[in-house]
Write a structure and sequence with these properties.
With 202 residues, the chain is an all-alpha fold. The chain has ten helices and no strands. Helix 4 crosses helix 5 and helix 7 packs parallel to helix 9.
Length: 202
């Protein structure tokens, strides 16, 4: 008898929970993967983690696993930096680790976090670093309000005007090399999808 298809919920969180439920139902693996692939392609970070776990269970190639794992961690750092930092800053001062907070900000900025770039700009002592971080923040958040974008742009321009020519060139060179979108290349290639669907569980 033909199995009836399950209607997919509208919101992503419920879709993800449905995918997890389907993992416990025999014969529903393709439906589960369909949902996870759709969620991952829409940017839902946890779907990458689930697909990575599926890859481990099915012993697929390390290149695919690395891509899925990176797809998860890069999105977590980019999209959850502000919330994570806020939580850490609420800890007692004695338990805060300045080096760890800075590492987290640099890691999140590397993959395109607007808030991480702003925090690094505020903490920077060197004008060239401040200017670079402000302009990097603008680069990763094109949808800012005109007022805020103008404020950040003006701050960066004032800083740049006060730099030596060498430092101005350095800021420009760093911005040219700043390509956070490269961390989000599509890892859900036909090869990866085929491996996740076809490889037998061990």
């Amino acid at each position: 008898m033909k199995r009836e298809a399950i209607a997919k919920p509208a919101d992503e969180t419920t879709q993800y929970q449905l995918a997890r439920t389907l993992s416990d139902i025999a014969g529903r693996e393709d439906e589960r993967l369909d949902i996870l692939f759709d969620l991952a392609r829409s940017g839902y970070a946890v779907a990458y983690n689930n697909l990575s776990a599926t890859g481990v269970d099915k012993s697929i190639g390390s290149k695919i696993l690395t891509g899925l794992s990176d797809g998860y961690s890069n999105r977590i750092f980019r999209d959850n930096y502000k919330m994570a930092r806020t939580g850490l800053m609420r800890l007692p001062a004695a338990t805060q680790n300045a080096a760890a907070l800075r590492w987290m900000a640099e890691r999140a900025a590397e993959v395109g976090s607007f808030d991480a770039n702003l925090d690094l700009a505020e903490e920077a002592e060197e004008p060239a670093e401040k200017a670079y971080r402000l302009r990097a923040a603008l680069a990763v958040r094109p949808g800012l309000s005109a007022e805020m974008a103008d404020t950040l742009r003006t701050r960066a321009e004032v800083l740049v005007q006060g730099l030596s020519q060498a430092d101005q060139h350095l800021v420009e060179a760093r911005l040219e090399d700043y390509r956070p979108t490269e961390f989000f290349a599509d890892v859900l290639t036909p090869e990866a999808e085929s491996a996740l669907r076809a490889a037998p569980a061990q």
